[in-house]
């Protein structure tokens, strides 16, 4: 047996005997030694033990955090706080090919605003889709505050599928929040602006012409897409609508949106006026907006709502007349509004008030039924007396912002921005239970599934705005700081700091990891952004490059190619200057994580082609030249050889009849040696195949996928074998040797896949067939 085949056999034997993992070398240190050396206390060790996930282990919860100005979503695990992914949403993300392949460019293009391509978003509030008020692990929505948009991420593959642009607003903060069955995704405007006109309206006409608003985006769960056709927007007063939350259980059918700057103050330092901050915080109360989306939906369905700018639009007068909108005073420049898990209370945190105000849904509904109003706002919206709506107020400290809930009944946590603390309290009784100082100014906080009907308790994350001196300094711009807090006991305990180096996350949502079931691969030839079979998919052996020209002499070169370990087909693409080039590459792999990338010199392209995916790239070959391309993922031992050339010929170029001069020449002896290796390799493969097929591998979908890929590779090996034998029959030793080597390449990949399948079966405890 020669060396190459021997190595493979050793590998196979190693796997059979399970030698790989045994005998990991630990240093001689005791726990005490390490504690002394690193200056750790017992408390530190306890915290470490609570967060540490051993190698190969998994986290209990998965967090989807807004990526702030990065326009992305950050995914990490709890309790380890290890980063798992950045999902490209409003911003191109090259690793995932997001914004680089034609399919995802089409998603980003949906987010064009005023005809402009935007390449970032200011993401604030991710919302997980819900069924009956609990996370169903299907979708995540997130807003862009700067450009009023909502994006839809599908948790089947963690990809952004859709971006919708609000036709009315000029900013949108109070989104995304979902209704209990994801019937709608709420998005409230922030800075008042003219809703129906996009042109100039002087600020002097602020009170009359500027407006706020609240959009209920209709979501089609089957299709996994927002349906703008059935969405509607409520016109609101020109207050700065801030956060929202949807009612649930007892408050199902209603939405709650708070606001600040109900003073309707317009600043203008340069006009000699005090700034916005003074004029927008001079009153003691602002307004909580109470909206009846169920009733609004009925009006829409009954054809009683008109469309403006292509979307159902409910003007203030209609909302008032139909009883869709009420106001409740709330103190003072409020920020967060959060509905309790039972839907009975609404907790409002006023930035400039040391209390949280706990409103009773029952009392609000009673006031509405009885017509108990203390007056109307300047636009005629009825105002419910604050005292008649309040359940209680709890004095927590300075700068209350956001609230989340515990699995324990009546227990809530509110962030205190100015005090840099988390307050734990009983909102039923109105009692403070505990306070914990964090580092430093906290914005949102998040408990596990803490905005659903069944919060999971256990952990809380403080999403801090300023990390100041907590982490290694990296210049004037510091990382953000997420702090993990153990809330399982009576006293909160701070157990971990995680610097976040990507934008300022605002809100986040954590879901039990076990609920997530993402895909391992796509159906072969899949457009992952539309979730349909790709019209330009290709199968193995069907790859084509076609050049067509129309009557005006405009030419198109279209490549329908494939990628599989370890080659791109085609390896040579020829086009002519001026051609429109379309590249469509399908990944033929099925094995888990067997992704290939694609980069092409000078064309700003980087594709990520996961198993089954078809990704495309289009460009105009505007200059003649030589453009190497290659796979950008280290996908196999011969990854660096996964390469090719795009040749852009000058116009009218005539190829001369010069045949390729070979770099190396091979003899019959080379061929014979190679064939010997191949036959020995085949013997190893046969062993592995026998091992797998003797077991119930069919019961393990991952193993089945690996076996399918291996079978493909063996099929290709057979084709190459045939070609090498044909060449040998003609004594063409050059081609005989090269095809024999290709035959071996396919065998190696088949063996690698087979060993992975075998390994997996051992780990899963597969049983021998009877
Ligand atoms: S906001 Cu940033 S900390 Cu947009 Cu929810 Cu409060
Ligand atoms: Cu495919 Cu590297």
Automatic annotation (TrEMBL):
Keywords noted in UniProt: Copper, Metal-binding, Periplasm, Signal
CDD domains in the record: N2OR_C (cd04223)
Pfam families recorded: COX2, nos_propeller
GO cellular component, one term: membrane
Subcellular location, principal: periplasm
Cell location: Periplasm
Listed SUPFAM superfamilies: Cupredoxins (SSF49503), Nitrous oxide reductase, N-terminal domain (SSF50974)
Matching PROSITE patterns: COX2_CUA
InterPro entries: CcO_II-like_C (IPR002429), Cupredoxin (IPR008972), N2O_reductase_N (IPR011045), N2OR_C (IPR034205), Nitrous_oxide_Rdtase_Sec-dep (IPR026468), Nos_propeller (IPR041114), NosZ/Cyto_c_oxidase_sub2 (IPR051403), WD40/YVTN_repeat-like_dom_sf (IPR015943)
Region (Disordered): 526-549
Biased composition (Basic and acidic residues): 529-549
Gene Ontology terms for molecular function: copper ion binding; cytochrome-c oxidase activity
Signal peptide boundaries: 1-27
Domain Cytochrome oxidase subunit II copper A binding, first and last residues per copy: 512-660
Protein name: Nitrous oxide reductase apoprotein
Organism in which the protein naturally occurs: Thiocapsa roseopersicina
